[in-house]
From TrEMBL:
Top EC group: oxidoreductase
Entry keyword annotation includes DNA-binding: no
InterPro entries hit by this protein: HMG_CoA_Rdtase, HMG_CoA_Rdtase_bac-typ, HMG_CoA_Rdtase_cat_sf, HMG_CoA_Rdtase_CS, HMG_CoA_Rdtase_NAD(P)-bd_sf, HMG_CoA_Rdtase_sub-bd_dom_sf
Native source species: Aureibaculum algae
Reaction catalyzed: (R)-mevalonate + 2 NAD(+) + CoA = (3S)-3-hydroxy-3-methylglutaryl-CoA + 2 NADH + 2 H(+)
Known pathway: Metabolic intermediate metabolism; (R)-mevalonate degradation; (S)-3-hydroxy-3-methylglutaryl-CoA from (R)-mevalonate: step 1/1
Family recorded in the similarity comment: Belongs to the HMG-CoA reductase family.
Enzyme Commission (EC) number: 1.1.1.88
Protein's name in the database: 3-hydroxy-3-methylglutaryl coenzyme A reductase
Pfam family, one: HMG-CoA_red
GO-annotated molecular function: hydroxymethylglutaryl-CoA reductase (NADH) activity; hydroxymethylglutaryl-CoA reductase (NADPH) activity
PROSITE patterns the record matches: HMG_COA_REDUCTASE_1 (PS00066), HMG_COA_REDUCTASE_4 (PS50065)
Domain of life the protein comes from: Bacteria
Gene3D superfamilies: 1.10.8.660, 3-hydroxy-3-methylglutaryl-coenzyme A Reductase, Chain A, domain 2
């Protein structure tokens, strides 16, 4: 039987599911009901989700959670988080409460410039190309006027177009390097539309346009978030804690194996808010990790100092986020997330997301340098293990109580459950 198909995209949802079950899921008879149980009975809402992407056959739920008690620039926030990993939301909540008693988080947007490029090949004399570009530059801007009209009214649009000679990296390779201000939108579609118009206007016989696309590397779209307090206010053994915390950061600056995990912990917070607000987490991930490697070596995104008895901990990251456009106002839960955040501008959202990353990093480093990560993480993960072991509601209640403060592993929980069942 052939397991390839022509015209799959033209089948309706039921026909797609039937074809999948008959060809790939024959040994899993409950597949149809699993897929169907995640469909929303509200037909309009289901259709909205179906139309977000192509070949949709069901919905894939992730938990929608909130972390209360954040204070950012003296304003109170409850931060929405969408993530599958246990302990992340608890950690964010714990740290929000901790820092709200120590002046809260401070955050500022350092820059908001986005970048797009027309990549092209040209084998002629550079001087001729430069003359052509300089004479055409006003026409290139004019050609995009109908696309940029509303963005310019908002104070955004194209900031500049530069001709860049990249022939030292690749024979005949040049770029039109274009900078943009996209205000409250992430700007990908706006930037790409402008670039394609610029490329078409720039086109001539001896210029071979290869592609026109925004860059997800945005080192000039930066936000900084920080916390600081007197070492004595860090709690018991404040200096000992601060020193170990500082050492953990130093290690993440010099050791890429550690830096990647360190930054993964930061992304636990960042991605969760980016997803909850309907933003593009792949774009954010790509840009943030490139920024972490900007020196040529992959390093920690956060830093820490201990000076004159003051502990300071901060993060500086590039973030391309929107509070309009994409799914932000189309997905009812993204819209609700933005409402919960009191309808921030894109700049304010950049600060909130950076704070979520910093909070997560603080929680992980605090745990790592004191109790170890497993204690808190496994305490939160216990329910997942119990669900995997198909514990009943009563068994769960008893085991959550009896295993409190114990070292939790899959095996220890399994053993405790079996013991409970023979009692
Ligand atoms: C897990 C905690 C928070 C426990 O911490 P705890 O001190 O045992 O918590 P608690 O039970 O005493 O509760 C204190 C507060 O924590 C929060 N909290 C506590 N429990 C809950 C819960 N069930 N639901 C919601 N919030 C919760 C909540 O704010 C609560 O206050 P309250 O609400 O009672 O006023 C702590 O141990 C912790 O922060 N651990 C770090 C967890 C972490 O970083 N997880 C990320 C996953 S591991 C990873 O992927 C990254 C990593 C670690 O590899 C990165 C790296 O290496 O850098
Ligand atoms: N490499 C990448 O990252 C790519 C990402 N994408 C996707 O593009 C989408 C984001 O593109 P966008 O252009 O942001 O979205 P979009 O295409 O929905 O456009 C947003 C539009 O909202 C309008 N707008 C209304 N009020 C505004 C305000 N206050 N500030 C700014 N604009 C305002 C503007 O006309 C703007 O162009 C995301 O879904 C992303 O996943 C698409 C292509 C490539």
């Amino acid at each position: 039987m052939s397991k390839t198909i022509t015209g799959f995209s033209k089948l309706d949802k039921e026909e797609k599911t039937t074809w999948l079950i008959n060809n790939f899921l024959t040994d899993f008879p409950d597949s149809h009901s699993v897929l169907n149980q995640y469909l929303n009975p509200n037909k309009k809402l289901q259709q909205l989700h179906d139309e977000f992407i192509e070949n949709s056959i069901s919905n894939y739920y992730l938990p929608f959670a909130v972390a209360p008690n954040f204070t950012i620039n003296n304003k109170a926030y409850v931060i929405p988080m969408v993530i599958e990993e246990s302990s992340v939301v608890a950690a964010a909540s714990l740290v929000a409460k901790f820092w709200s008693k120590r002046g809260g988080f401070k955050a500022e947007v350092l820059s908001t410039t986005k970048i797009g490029q027309v990549h092209f090949m040209y084998a002629g004399a550079y001087l001729n190309l430069e003359t052509y570009f300089n004479s055409l530059k006003p026409t290139l801007l004019k050609a995009t006027e109908s696309i940029t009209k509303n963005m310019r009214k908002r104070g955004g649009g194209i900031l500049d177009i530069e001709l860049r000679d990249k022939t030292s990296d690749l024979d005949h390779y040049y770029q039109l390097h274009v900078t943009f201000e996209t205000k409250d939108s992430m700007g990908a579609n706006f930037i790409n539309s402008c670039l394609e118009t610029i490329a078409n206007t720039f086109r001539k016989d001896d210029v071979e346009i290869v592609m026109s696309i925004l860059s997800n590397y945005i080192p000039d779209c930066l936000v900084k978030a920080e916390v600081s307090c007197d070492i004595d206010d860090l709690g018991e053994n404040g200096m000992e804690f601060a020193k170990k915390f500082y050492q953990a950061l130093q290690i993440a600056q010099v050791e890429p194996y550690r830096a990647v995990t360190h930054n993964k912990g930061i992304m636990n917070g960042i991605d969760a808010v980016v997803i909850a607000t309907g933003n593009d987490f792949r774009a954010v991930e790509a840009g943030v990790h490139a920024y972490a490697a900007k020196s040529g070596k992959y390093k920690s995104l956060s830093q820490c100092t201990i000076n004159d008895g003051v502990f300071k901990f901060w993060i500086e990251i590039p973030l391309a986020l929107g509070t309009v456009g994409g799914l932000t106002n189309l997905h009812p839960l993204s819209k609700l997330s933005l409402n919960l955040l009191q309808n921030p501008s894109a700049k304010e959202l950049m600060m909130i997301v950076a704070v979520a990353g910093l909070a997560q990093n603080f929680a992980a480093l605090k745990a790592l340098t004191t109790t170890g990560i497993q204690k808190g993480h496994m305490k939160m993960h216990l329910n997942n293990i119990l669900n995997q072991l198909e514990a009943t509601k009563d068994e769960k209640l008893m085991l959550v109580n009896s295993l409190n403060n114990q070292h939790i592993t899959y095996n220890s929980v399994n053993k405790a459950l079996q013991q409970l069942r023979v009692q």
